[in-house]
Specification:
alpha+beta, 650 residues, 16 strands, 58% helix, six-stranded antiparallel sheet, single chain
């Protein structure tokens, strides 16, 4: 007899509807309960219960498939993030966030090793609320994370606080307690596979309640950790690639720069070599260096005097002799040149580059560059090589000057020995040598100690270098003949004494005479210079320079012209002018004072005035002549001037 449909059909239909709607397991189980309540037969009830069990299995399978689909989607998304990797931190934050979401934990975090500190630190956290936990640092082997890094294996703890498999430390336990974590799962970040894999960090998922992590959860977290390891390794590779590209770009720039520098150096070498071969001068070198280095250039001699300059910062060239106003500047350049010689390189001083110009260790001068505060390697080497070319030209120039000076020196010797023998012949001979004896000249006679005598002759050549003068040794001294440029003989002698002393390294006494023109006048000037030189030595003024005009009454006695009026004016001029303007008698008072042996009482009787008047007049005399007027030496000159004044009748 055929089986009739029963009331089980609606229940089976209800199960299918619930499955299709994704109802929870409780709703599926409620279908069998409803069948039992409806009074279904035992056979039908058993069928409903079997169908319910099958529906629950189907539901579990569907849930697993959906979960697996979600996991695969997350892994694919992570792979996509890696493919478009731009920011490593962003990728790691995404991985940690997905780990927390997929495992459904309260928090997730990732640790990386600190190679310098030798421990690990929290790189990324998600769901963490504890600052203490976020700043935890773990040593190798400490805590669950330290064990994961040490063994390269995943570890899970349902209750970390009571788990004795890990090495607990106060700092780690305090951080875990502050975060409130209980169950923790940690997996390693591995590069490579097998025993050769390298642990570069660890990924964790943690709950604040006890929990046992399933094997598929461990596998899922391991997959995410593999992606994180790939991200870190990729980021490192990209960083290394960028660094390598930067190094290559830098190396390429250096190669281009060196190539350009070599081309410039080759061009500069050819230019300077051609300049020397064409017989160029120091000024030509300065011009070439200024153009090559795009700055202002000056060349100075060993005493700091400028020889040539190019550009507004090079300074004006002083010509024959250094301007006394530039003495400090010259001294600073000499010191900088000595520093350059000691360092064997150019030095930067006072906003300019200074390079010593040397012949061996002898300082010929210095090359100075302005306007280039930052001089790089190739340009600096070019500047230093230019000093070598400058030294070569200065040596050639000095050699020529020394040869010419020897020839001219013979003329000076003949001029001083027999000026009247053939004056016209001496003048003509001088013109052939470039010396116009009919032009006014200053004549200097210089002498030093026996030990430095030979050096003095060489120093005189250097001192006259480039000024058109000439020197010669004569009668135990060195005679220098300089074209007159308006400088007084005494001033010229003082400047020469200082410069020659520096060049010889010993005191040099210099006497000046002139200006004089013509053979006989120059010979007379030499005789006057010799007398002045002897007077300077007798007066103990070795190392000084002066002329007879600066020796007071000795100058009157030693000079050829016996300038009595000049001596009287130099000694008594202020008193004579004061008396002439005010009708006073200071000169007469001074004469009476000296005539009475310095007695105020006798002087006031001689002058027929009160003693206070004498005192007042003497105070005025001191104000006009200076506080040293009554010293023995000054008093002697004043008395001699008073006698000569009375004899002249003026």
């Amino acid at each position: 007899m055929p089986h009739k449909p029963t009331s089980v059909t609606p229940h089976l239909r209800r199960l299918l509807e619930l499955l299709a709607a994704g109802a929870p397991a409780e709703d599926l189980g409620a279908v069998a309960v409803e069948a039992r309540r409806s009074g279904a037969a035992a056979e039908d009830l058993a069928e409903v219960e079997q169908a319910t069990e099958a529906a629950l299995r189907v539901q579990s399978t569907l849930r697993q498939h959906r979960r697996r689909e979600t996991e695969l989607t997350a892994l694919f998304d992570t792979a996509g993030d890696l493919a478009a990797l731009r920011d490593l931190d962003a990728v790691l934050r995404s991985i940690v966030r997905r780990a927390r979401m997929l495992l459904g934990t309260d928090t997730a975090y990732l640790t990386l090793p600190d190679e310098e500190a030798g421990d690990t630190y929290m790189r990324v956290t998600d769901g963490s609320v504890s600052e203490l936990f976020q700043n935890l640092r773990l040593q190798l082997g400490e805590g669950l994370g330290g064990l994961v890094a040490q063994t390269a294996r995943p570890y899970a703890s349902p209750d970390y606080r009571t788990d004795d498999r890990f090495l607990h430390t106060g700092s780690i336990d305090a951080g875990v307690l502050d975060e409130g974590l209980v169950a923790i799962l940690g997996v390693p970040l591995l590069l490579g596979s097998g025993s050769g894999g390298q642990v570069i960090g660890a990924l964790f998922a943690a709950d604040r309640t006890p929990r046992t992590f399933a094997p598929d959860e461990v596998a899922l977290l391991c997959s995410l950790a593999d992606h994180a390891a790939i991200a870190i390794d990729t980021a490192k590779a990209m960083a290394d690639a960028r660094a390598a590209l930067a190094e290559l770009a830098e190396a390429n720039a250096v190669i281009r720069e060196n190539s350009a520098a070599m081309q410039r150096a080759e061009s500069a070498h050819d230019r300077l070599t051609d300049l020397v071969l064409r017989g160029g001068d120091v000024s030509d070198v300065a011009t070439a260096v200024a153009a090559l280095l795009n700055g202002d250039v000056a060349v100075h001699d060993s005493s700091g005097r400028p020889l040539t300059a190019v550009g507004e910062h090079g300074g004006a060239v002083a010509g024959t002799r250094e301007d006394t106003g530039r003495a400090e500047e010259a001294a600073a350049l000499v010191e900088a040149a000595k520093s350059s010689r000691a360092a064997a390189h150019a030095v930067f001083r006072d906003g300019r580059w200074v390079c010593a110009v040397l012949a061996g260790q002898e300082l010929l001068g210095c090359l100075v560059l302005y306007g280039r505060p930052h001089l790089d390697g190739p340009d600096l080497r070019l500047f230093e090589r230019s000093s070598v070319v400058t030294s070569l030209l200065l040596l050639l120039r000095r050699s020529v000057a020394e040869t010419e000076n020897r020839v001219r020196g013979d003329l000076i010797t003949d001029l001083l020995t027999a000026p009247g023998r053939d004056p016209a012949g001496l003048v003509a001979r001088g013109r052939r040598l470039g010396i116009d004896l009919d032009r006014p000249h200053i004549l200097l006679v210089a002498r030093t100690g026996e030990a430095a005598r030979q050096r003095l002759a060489d120093a005189a050549v250097q001192y006259l270098f480039g000024c058109g003068g000439v020197s010669a040794e004569h009668d135990g001294a060195v005679v220098l003949l300089l074209p007159c440029d308006g400088t007084a003989p005494g001033e010229a002698a003082g400047v020469a004494a200082g410069q020659l002393g520096q060049l010889t390294g010993a005191p040099v006494t210099v006497a000046g005479a002139g200006p004089a023109a013509g053979p006989q006048a120059l010979a007379d000037a030499h005789a006057e210079g010799l007398r002045c030189l002897r007077a300077l030595q007798v007066l103990g003024r070795d190392g000084h320079g002066a002329s007879v005009a600066e020796l007071g009454f000795l100058g009157v006695l030693l000079g050829d012209h016996h300038d009595v009026d000049g001596f009287v004016t130099a000694a008594l001029g202020p008193l004579l002018e004061y008396d002439a303007q005010r009708g006073t008698q200071l000169v007469r008072t001074l004469s009476a004072y000296f005539g009475c042996g310095g007695s105020l009482t006798r002087a006031k009787e001689e002058l027929h005035v009160h003693v206070n008047t004498v005192v007042q007049r003497l105070d005025r005399i001191q104000a006009l002549l200076g506080p040293d007027w009554n010293t023995p030496e000054q008093a002697l000159e004043l008395q001699l001037a008073l006698r000569l004044h009375l004899l002249s009748g003026t």
